[in-house]
Amino acid sequence: MASSARAMWVWVHEAAPPDPAAVAAFAAQQRVTEAFVSVPWGGPTAATHQCVAALRGKGVRVSALGGDPSWTTGTDAITWMQRATAAWLFDGVHLDIEPWTRRDWPGREQELLAGLERTVKDVAARTALPVEVDLSPWLADVHPAAFAAIVRRADAVGLMAYRDRATDILAGSASARRLIAEARKPYRIGVDTFPVPEPRETFADDGRAVLERELAAVAAQLAGDPRFAGVAVHDHQYWSALPA
């Protein structure tokens, strides 16, 4: 994948799905080459099909997006993946599970990360599609062995390096990128546009020009890394609402 590749998360909320034409037009305007489109537990809906079709019409590759912090035990991730991919809509599977957001994370870190590794392995074993997993870079600093084990099970990694300046994005993801290089896996650098209390973690208060400037700086710094597969922005709803 070229370092200029761009991806975005697209959450298709069942109660208020986004306008497919608007999503596709924005993707084309922002040079998005891949979209992670969410699929509900029951499988693709009419809204899912419409969004995927509109994006494909603009030449965008589409992966099935799904995940829940509970998916570190049992077979829910496999069940979801099989339903999501049964209609042959997608080019890949994108897991956004994030067990570190669970209330019981403190004290169970190793157990939950081992569960995430197992889940990624099990999903990948049951689909011919490439499986990408979202990981927070700080895991590589605090739990390097578990982080590396999860990376080895995936086909690619989405590094949620949620900072709003290139220097912080690169510094915060350094350990993660080293471990990913050792595993010889491709990765994307993900950034956020969702409004959160800590302004350093999002571009929500910066606007689109700052986002473009910092993404360009990240891409320039990582252009020589053969594992760097481009940037990804979370998510369509808030990215498209950023002021110019």
Which tags fit this structure?
eight-stranded parallel β-barrel; TIM Barrel; 8 strands; 244 residues; alpha/beta
Task: Examine the secondary-structure arrangement and name the CATH architecture.
Answer: Alpha-Beta Barrel
**Secondary structure tally, helices:** 10
**Overall pLDDT, averaged?**
97
Reading off the top of the CATH hierarchy, the class is best stated as Alpha Beta
Q: Whole-number radius of gyration?
A: 17 Å
Question: Element order, helices and strands?
Answer: EHEHEHEHEHHEHHEHEH
Q: Reading side by side through the largest sheet, how are the strands ordered? A: 1-2-3-4-5-6-7-8
Q: Any idea how many domains?
A: 1
Q: Please state the overall shape, judged from the principal axes of the Cα atoms.
A: globular
Distance N terminus to C terminus? 28 Å
CATH superfamily: Glycosidases
User: Spans of 5+ residues with little confidence (pLDDT < 50)?
Assistant: none
Largest sheet descriptor: 8 strands, parallel, barrel
Organism: Agrococcus jenensis
Protein name: Glycosyl hydrolase family 18 (Putative chitinase)
Characterise this structure.
The chain is built from ten helices and eight strands. It is of the alpha/beta class and 244 residues long. It has a single domain, classed as Alpha-Beta Barrel (TIM Barrel). An eight-stranded parallel β-barrel has the order 1-2-3-4-5-6-7-8, surrounded by five helices. Helix 2 links the parallel strand 2 and strand 3. The longest helix has 17 residues. The model has no long low-confidence stretch (mean pLDDT 97). It comes from Agrococcus jenensis. This is Glycosyl hydrolase family 18 (Putative chitinase).
